[in-house]
Amino acid sequence: MTERSPATSRSIFLVAIFLTFIGTCGAMRATQELIDTPVAVSPDMDDVARANATRDAMALLMDDPHRRAISAAHLIAAIMLLVGALLLFTRRESARWWVKNAIAANIAVIVASMISTFVHFRSVSPQVHAIFAALPVDPDAPSLDPMVHFSLLAWSEAISIAILVYVAWRLSRASAPPPDARGR
User: Fold this and answer.
1) pTM here?
2) Residue 70: which of 117, 121, 118, 104 has the closest Cα?
3) Where are the domains of the chain?
4) What are phi and psi of 119, to 5 degrees?
5) pLDDT of 84-116, one tens digit each?
């Protein structure tokens, strides 16, 4: 095996730590989405009717029929990232291959999740608008437009994809032999 510079070993080590962080966060998020939790309404809402409407609208938005299946796929993809990080730490021959496939799986899950969320939000948008149309007009009350919620979610997921692509690019910049996380 070829000798690596300390800078290359450190960068591979940091990529492995970063993959561990991303995989752990993804596994926690997927596990939370797999658990059916009731929709909580902010306690600072004074108007009971608006609080109930917000809870009903959020329940509609969170009732995506594909959410549990995509969450299970997200959990598997996050575990793949953790395994890839472990392989990087232990300098396995298959580490680079495994991490690239784990990143591709995570990107595929994110894209599938965004498509499913978009389709679901578009289908329940009229019902959400009907819930809030029954309330008296309050210009200070926050709006719960499903497409605004989706756009915020899409930006966060786009950042996740960009981070994963950067990690894959950073890992591919290493030379041909498998990365050496221990500096040997």
Assistant:
1) 0.76
2) 117
3) 6-172
4) -60, -40
5) 999 988 888 788 888 899 999 999 999 999 998
